[in-house]
Amino acid sequence: MNIDLEIYSPVHQIHDKLFDEQGLKVFIKRDDLIHPIISGNKWRKLKYLLKEAQTQNKTHLVTFGGAYSNHLLATSAAAAKFGFKSTGFVRGEDVNNDTLFLCRLHGMNLIFADRESYRDKQAMFDKYFAKDGGVFFIDEGGSSALGAKGCSELIDELDDAYSHIICACGTGTTAAGIINGITQHKLPTQFDGVPVLKNGEFLRKDIDGFLDKPTPYNLHTDYHFGGYGKVNDELIRFVKQFVVNTGILIEPIYTGKMLSALYGLAAKSYFSPGSKILAIHTGGIWGLLGMKEKFKI
To answer: Could you tell me the residue ranges of all domains in the chain?
Structure first.
C-alpha cells in the first residue's frame, strides 16, 4: 500500500487580554487535527519511518512506550491503516487501560516489560525478534533522524513568518526537526522548547544530535510541573480554563505545559512587543484518558 501521509494542520489565532497588553500576536498550529489518533508530531515522526519500513519490505512494526503512550497508540493505528502488524513493548506491570484497549483494538500485540529490562530496548527487541527479518524497529516516541525529517516539514506549511515558534519537548526529535526547518528556510525565527521532563536541559544533547548544523535555540526548563507525566492543580486549572476560553482541546502532559510556559513567559515580558508567536499543538489528546481523575469534573 502506498503510504500517503497527507497533512491538514490549520493555524488559528489565540486571543487573550494578556497578549493584547504585551503587544503580542499568538497563533497555534493545530497538528491535533491531522488525524484523530495518529495526531500531531506522532504523524510527522512516523511518516518517513513507515516509508522506510515499506522500502525494506518489512511487515511488522515494533516499538516502545509507557502504559498511556500516545506513541504506542499512534503506531498501532498507523500499522492498521497501512497494512503492518504491530507490537508494543509496554514499560511496567501488566495493566489494562483505555489507551492500551485502543492499541489492542487496532491489532497491536502488547508485551509488558519490567523497568530494568525496558532500559535496554535493543536487547528486548533482539530477545523476541532477532531472527525475524520482517520486523522494523521504531524507538520510543519515534525518536530518530527520520522522525526529525518529518517534523522539519512543518515549516514548509507556514504561510507567515513568526518571531518565535514554541513547542513541547519530550525526546527532542520534534524540536530538532522544527529547528532544521527554520534553518533550511533561512528564517530569523527563534525556537523556544519547553521540556516536559524534570531537569530538561539534558534534552539539549538529544536535540543537537539530530540538528543539520549547530543552531542556537532556547529551552525553558521551569514548566515541567514535577516531571514527565506529572501534573498539579495549577496546571489542571490552566488546561481547563484554556479549553473553555478557546474551544481547543489540550492535554496536560505536553501541549498544556507548553501553553502554560507561553502564558508565563508572556507575563514576564520575555517576548518583545510586536512579536508574532506560533505555538505547536502536538496532538496526543488521548493522553487525557490517563488523567481523568485529576480534573475532578
So the answer is: 11-37+145-295, 41-142
Joined together, the cell numbers standing for residue 261 give 510556559
| pTM, full prediction | 0.95
Beta bridge partners of 285: none
CATH code of the domain made up of 41-142: 3.40.50.1100
Domain 11-37+145-295 has CATH 3.40.50.1100: yes
Per-residue confidence (pLDDT) for residue 1, from 0 to 100: 62
Mean of the per-residue pLDDT values of the chain: 95
